[in-house]
Amino acid sequence: MIIEILVIGNEILIGKTQDTNSNWMAKRITKYGHRIHRITTIGDSLDEIARTVQEILERAPAMIITTGGLGPTFDDMTNEGVAKGLGRELVLDKHAYNMIEKAYKQAYEQGILKLEGMTKEREKMAYLPEGSIPLPNQRGTAPGVKIEEKGTSIFILPGVPAEMKKMFNNVIKPILKEEEGKFYQKGFILSGIGESQIAPYVTELEEKNPELWIKTHPRVGLAVEVEISVTCFDRPNCENLIDKVLKKLKQTVKNLGGIIKKEYD
Asked: How many CA atoms lie within 13 A of 63 on its CB side?
């Protein structure tokens, strides 16, 4: 499954807040054998959100996951931006309204908040793109959203990490596991030759095996790390392919006068 992540928030762009959400999701999406095609970060701009959603849909991923911009303040405009990008109306969703009302009632009764009941700002979070499904937020007040658009599933998640993680695990993780593949990674660390010397051979193997991702990482001194990874659903073929390419690369290193210092899975 090809997936794109859209991170929304001015606080990310100005460096006030670090985006840990996309990193956390990418690790888990990869773990279940799916591929992140692109991670995009944009600000809280209605037109930019709409335009970016349209651009991502043109690439036709199986899933889009957005984080951020679901709160009650004026600059929380993800739902409105997505609605505009999809050409849908922004409508008051009764189920979302009830979720929000219940969350604020509980927070008031627990003494977390001093203001009881719904306000205009709180009601704002219940306006969703027409035809969408609200997703319960067990760690906060703003519901998430699920939308189906031309074969792509769009999930709009909160930006607060604890809220995002809980919603991801409850809603998206089961989908990923249902179509689970497997991510394989093997590699080795070499010394005695530079990264540029082995680069032509890596390029040649990648061209012959486009399903593999082969990456070299320079380390301290002349040490170089070679990493090979692949996502697939056929374990024997995957491992056999990686082992075959690894064998060729290790022989190349030896032929060039290098030394294999360490291997890892």
From this structure: 24
